[in-house]
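Q: Convert this sequence to structure tokens.
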Amino acid sequence: MATSGGPVIHTPDHRLRVFVSSTLEELEPERLAVRDAIARMRLVPVMFELGARPHGPREVYRAYLEQSQLFIGIYWESYGWVGPDSQRSGIEDEYLVAGHLPKLIYVKAPAPDRDPRLTALLDRIRDDARVSYRQFRSADELRRVVGEDIALLLTERFTPRSGARSGSGSSSGEAEVMPRDDVPVPPNPLLGRRAEQRALRDLLTSDDVRLVTLTGPGGVGKTRLAMELGSALHNTFADGVRFTDLSGVTDPDLVAASLAQSLGLRTVPNRSPLDDVVTYLRNRSLLLVVDNLEHLPDAAPTIAAVLGAGAGITMLATSRVPLRLTGEHVFDVLPLPVPDPAEDPSVAVRRDGAARLFVERARAVKADFAVGPDEAAAIAEIVRRLDGLPLAVELAAAKVRVLTPRALLGRLTSRLGTLTGGARDLPARQRTLRDTIAWSYHLLPDHEKRLFARLGVFAGPFDLTAARAVAGVPEQYAGIDALSSLIESSLIGQEKGDREPRFTMLGIIRDYALERLREEGDWTDTHNRHALHYLYFAEHVAPPLGRTSTNPASVDLLEAEHDNLRAAMTWFIDTGQLEEAVRLGWVVWSLWWLRGHTDEGARSIERVLEHADQLSPRAYAHVLFGDGAISFVTGQHAVGRAKLERALPLLRRLGDDDATARAAGMLGQLALARGDYDQARELLEETKQISERLGEEWMIALYHTRLGLVPLKAGDPKAAAAQFADGLRLARKTNDHLGEIVALFSLAVAEMVDGDQAGATAYLESGLRVAAGVRDEASAALFLQALSDLAARGGSAERAVRLAAAARKLRTDTGAAWIQAYVPDWPSGADLDTRAHPRAWSQGTADNLGSALAYALEAPQQRTPANT
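A:
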């Protein structure tokens, strides 16, 4: 407690203090809206998360309440956390401790899942005639009514007081000298930056940190984040916070004068403004927020002198490049998170991030903007296309005054051309995305401009080797300085790779780079260098066609370059380089196949086959085989059979044993499926003989699992299991994960047909471990679905529902089709009503591959009713 004689826990400053009470997670946008409304009135929001970390939670909020003059409570559905030694939650205790304060209570509606304990508390609050009680529906509505209510309450209840306590404990009637707070008040709450704010508050309040520079591309929100931090930290520094905007300053010699102006200092002729600034800052505790320093690198000595004025001076700077001063801490501001394509868009637009920002900004310009399923899906796709860049998202949201989200999405074919305009109070250089990016681009020397334009051809992350190849600089370390400069200018991003750093470019910035590349006339040569580099990369990295399942690490390398491989394929086809396209498709087949991208492969093959008359015999045979194989693994058996039957004699004639063995194996399995066992044995025997000649034991393993389907279909599960077991032994001997997965699932089916559910369970659990170990989600989903059926058969309905939900989340149509092409069907099982257990379904939907594995393998004695 503040009066206990121990250390006093001070609230942010000594102005009128408004304590804000609510749960932290559930109502974050609403808390930000209330804080914004309070700050606009030049009052002090007192919020639990703002500080006093060395003290216990109850001690903190009781001390804060004792120093506050007004209580605001915001409630929705959650009753909040209840401590182990308490009978009531923190929010109820805050309300009771604030008994002496005037109270404004705001309750969000609708609230279908409100905790009964919160309902009881709200009933008691409504009965208190001294309390102002309102309902609200949105953060924007709350921001407005809070401002109105505080203004009314102040006029009714508060008058100026003499004898207010000063910061030093004085009780004299002298007016307090308050720290100035010149940080601009943003018009909207900051969304999606909670983690960054927490990390930066810790950094800026560390005793050994004097300079923090926020870096990132134009429009990513550096200034907005700096303003938010300045507002949040004004209580931390005894002399407050000052904000200096240098965007309009072009001469580094004028930086000191701008700083003096922000400090309220008068400057006189014949005296350096820097001397005045340094003199003023000595012995002060102050946070200086200095915005837009990237275009003033020669001002570094001025910044260094300011920081040297006194130990109490801390600077938060924004710049697209580091300042390169001693003691500088660089903090890279990233774009906002965007919804995953597999995520429910209706959920995504309610969660903090780029989609939520779009909705909030859209409602700011169109009060009746509503978000139904179609709008949510369009918004999710819009922000994905805009890479979560806040400025781009805000400019897009401004268009809802005249365009629906679906119509806006349709017009985003040229991102730089569509999003023009924006709020008039934005700096001139940010009124269009083109201006924002050009601001950084035109600061570059010519050789860096050329590199920037050429790097625009990358469709995804790239490494230094690829950058050198595309830039046309074969020397090992050539171009590193220019690339480093682009990174410092935030035109290129850098991320950690498995072996070496990788580099990225936001899609919107990439569009601008490509415009520059086209204007410079280097378009064709640069794209050719890019496509050929990734062709050579894939041919070097990809495993031979018949060994793809034994080397998942190779497929991982291809997956990491998937975007660039796709772009290379598109370029080869678009420019008529069909032989190169077939070469590339032949080596990335394993990527298409094992990682569920067969639809992409099918589209590429279809485009190549449109020009079949231009292909060499080998290229044509390979394309035809690939076309048939994709039909086979996607369940189009009749179409696949016709194409493979055309390809097989061509492959035999060319002497391509690997492809011949695979084509014969697929046709053999199709013969099994239609009951033509004689042809199946003939084709599978051809596969076996070639595999033995080549030493390809993995194909021999697959031969056994395919041959085991004959006795299984004939009703002899024991004979089938013997074949499957032979396949399993060979697959494990060769570290063939695909063969092992197929054999284990086939053995589980054989055990089920033989009536041994325990044996089937053991095989399914082993197969799930293998699939998860190689991150094969399609196969994992197959095993989870079978385990779900076993749970349902055993009467564990909730467990079955959770496993089924997890399987559904991991399964894709393409992935399911390819693995099911290799395994027998699971025997028809028990009916399962997933709607009867919504909690279990929700848990399974929230599972990832790791948590689904852990749950599925949970020992029976660990399975409580809550877990099953």
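The first strand starts at residue 17 and ends at 21.
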